[in-house]
């Protein structure tokens, strides 16, 4: 019988249809469960599990951004950019971008890079190879590494196991699903109860196994409402109030809380639970009793990028480490992400992936790397990376760009970008549908900024200038 670690990473067979559009992305799960406070102030509404708005101002919002076939063609590699396209010459972009990049709101030395996704040609660069603190734009790298290592159809399991013939003790084994919620845990309890009933067991003791993720549980920033202690087993991302969104207090023991919720649900399904769930390794001879799977990785990545979910990001970095056979801790994840991006042939000089979420100020990325990642995701040779593009927030419509680019802005619906914010750091990296039908990738990274309320509009103006 295989060891638990072998089947913990079992994948589902479902295939996700990826639609490249400048329209709103359909999401799974609650709105932005890991977003840091500073970014959330700029996102004016919440989305339900289907991505629709349900706040008081929803009726006054513009309709969803339409799909644009001319935008899709370059992403699929079916047409090249016109040689005489406006702004195609680097000098033309320099004239438009250089004055905006000199805005004092962006600090003393912001960096920038713009490339044509259809041709891979760099159209503009300013300090593009200089490493900067990327904040949450590093999630683009995390997403690409996970998709490259695991594939877009991979699903993360949460499993109940028991030793054959000894079903008086069952072990809840965490597979690292940071999207596990109470509904799916209830489904697991129901499946477990039915399986135990088939084996004639009406009472059990529960252990829970989090061995998949070794090492420190706390992020280097320490206890924080923007991220739970990192664990291979958690429910509702360890939120003390499962209905909460945005920054919220978290359980100090997410795995223990998940096991207690599972025990309660198992009791509701007719199985008596003796004692309190306790941590413990699943026996090597244990076999699966019941299992639930996450959504396909493509959808999980889209949710993570759209809403800058820190908990999912850290889980994806560790899933990349597991796929590479490395320890799923901070150090192992850093090596695995770096190795995966190197295999993709990306420019990594001076970069560092100290975490998967961008909360760690030791992270380093370049504008050149971020645009290269976006270009790689648009490459027809790498369809597995396409969720990196489809998950980017849509200006004025979704995620962390929901409250930026009002309806009257030329960028509304045409800019898709990952935001990044830490104190003194403001970044933006994504794609823009230019008037000539080309799709451009851009990255703007600013450090030593004095106020996000000045830096963000300055970044938005840079991206919008690509539409002129």
TrEMBL record:
Transmembrane segment boundaries: none
Region annotation (Disordered) ranges: 34-87
Keyword tags: Carboxypeptidase, Hydrolase, Protease
Highest taxon, organism lineage: Bacteria
Pfam families attached to this UniProt entry: Peptidase_S13 (PF02113)
InterPro entries found in the cross-reference section: Beta-lactam/transpept-like, Peptidase_S13
Gene3D superfamilies from the UniProt entry: DD-peptidase/beta-lactamase superfamily (3.40.710.10)
Pro residues compositional bias, start-end: 61-72
SUPFAM superfamilies found in the cross-reference section: beta-lactamase/transpeptidase-like
Low complexity: compositionally biased ranges: 76-87
Entry's Gene Ontology molecular function annotations: carboxypeptidase activity
Family, similarity comment: Belongs to the peptidase S13 family.
Name of the molecule in the record: D-alanyl-D-alanine carboxypeptidase/D-alanyl-D-alanine-endopeptidase
């Amino acid at each position: 019988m295989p060891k638990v670690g072998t089947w913990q990473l079992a994948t589902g067979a479902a295939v996700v249809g990826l639609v490249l559009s400048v329209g709103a992305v359909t999401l799974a799960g609650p709105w932005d469960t890991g977003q840091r406070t500073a970014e959330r102030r700029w996102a004016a509404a919440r989305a339900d599990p289907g991505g629709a708005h349900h706040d008081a101002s929803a009726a006054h919002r513009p309709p969803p951004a339409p799909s644009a076939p001319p935008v899709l063609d370059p992403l699929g590699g079916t047409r090249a950019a016109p040689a005489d396209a406006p702004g195609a010459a680097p000098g033309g972009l320099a004239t438009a971008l250089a004055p905006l990049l000199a805005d004092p709101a962006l600090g003393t030395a912001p960096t920038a890079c713009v490339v044509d996704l259809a041709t891979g040609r760099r159209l503009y660069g300013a300090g593009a190879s200089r490493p900067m603190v990327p904040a949450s734009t590093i999630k683009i790298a995390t997403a690409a590494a996970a998709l490259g290592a695991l594939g877009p159809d991979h699903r993360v399991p949460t499993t109940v196991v028991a030793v054959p013939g000894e079903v008086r003790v069952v072990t809840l084994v965490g597979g690292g699903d940071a999207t596990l919620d109470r509904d799916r845990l209830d489904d697991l309890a129901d499946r477990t109860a039915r399986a135990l009933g088939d084996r004639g067991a009406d009472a059990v003791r529960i252990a829970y196994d989090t061995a998949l993720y070794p090492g420190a549980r706390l992020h280097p920033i320490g206890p924080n409402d923007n991220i739970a202690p990192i664990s291979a087993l958690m429910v509702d991302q360890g939120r003390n109030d499962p209905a909460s969104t945005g920054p919220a207090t978290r359980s100090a023991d997410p795995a223990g809380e998940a096991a207690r919720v599972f025990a309660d649900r198992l009791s509701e399904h007719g199985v008596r639970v003796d004692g309190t769930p306790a941590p413990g390794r699943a026996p090597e001879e244990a076999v699966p009793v019941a299992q639930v799977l996450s959504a396909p990785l493509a959808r999980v990545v889209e949710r993570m990028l759209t809403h800058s979910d820190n908990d999912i990001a850290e889980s994806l970095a560790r899933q990349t480490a597991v796929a590479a056979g490395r320890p799923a801790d901070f150090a192992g994840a850093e090596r695995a992400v770096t190795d995966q991006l190197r295999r993709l042939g990306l420019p990594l000089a001076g970069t560092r992936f100290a975490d998967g979420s961008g909360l760690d100020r030791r992270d380093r990325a370049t504008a050149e790397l971020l645009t290269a990642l976006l270009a790689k995701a648009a490459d027809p040779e790498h369809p597995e990376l396409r969720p990196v593009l489809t998950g980017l927030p849509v200006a004025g419509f979704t995620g962390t760009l929901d409250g930026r680019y009002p309806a009257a802005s030329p960028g509304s619906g045409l800019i898709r970008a990952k935001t990044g914010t830490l104190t003194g750091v403001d970044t933006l990296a994504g794609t823009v549908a230019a008037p000539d039908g080309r799709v451009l990738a851009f990255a703007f990274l600013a450090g030593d900024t004095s106020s996000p309320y000045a830096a963000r509009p300055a970044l938005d103006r840079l991206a919008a200038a690509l539409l002129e």
